[in-house]
Structure prediction request, 218 residues.
Amino acid sequence: MGIQKYVFYSIHNCDQHPEVPLMEIKHCTEKFLQDSSLNYVIIRLCGFMQGLIGQYAVPILEEKSVWGTDAPTRIAYMDTQDIARLTFIAMRNEKIDNKLLTFAGPRAWTTQEVITLCERLAGQDANVTTVPVSVLKFTRQLTRFFQWTNDVADRLAFSEVLSSDTVFSTPMTETYTLLGVDQKDIVTLEKYLQDYFTNILKKLKDLKAQSKQTDIFL
Prediction:
């Protein structure tokens, strides 16, 4: 097909969790590419900052329940725009050919730390519902008994890994040097969420102001 370079996005530590179908598929695809004659770049990712908006920021603003676990999992979230920029650099760099890289954000965060940050930026408390990891494990085993719930069990297996006592992060100094990127140019989670809440709260304030201007009193 004339493919010059195949870029595959994988998951950090996917080779350590064969019990999770999604991670097993990612690892198998990695091995397939490594055994092929294709010119490739494999990029393992830890987590997306954008996913935190729907999971934590919006529910807090709407005063809805925020779901979390009691596990000390830490994830180094990264802005998808930074991921795209680093990928583009990797595609143009022949030194990266046939290599496996891991992209991680500047800091690894626990769920509670993310919620606390969102609370501070939103200026209001979150209604947190904590789900013990033991409940996830039990539910996963229960859904394995029925064929029609296998998909649910697979999703719970992934959630269980994300809720385990592990760290989804890796040192990035060598990768930054290899790509010729300054770490200062990578967006931090604090900056990303601060920009989001600043913009959304300003829009909400403007909407309230417009609503008052159009009120009709009889």
Remarks:
- The longest strand covers residues 6-11.
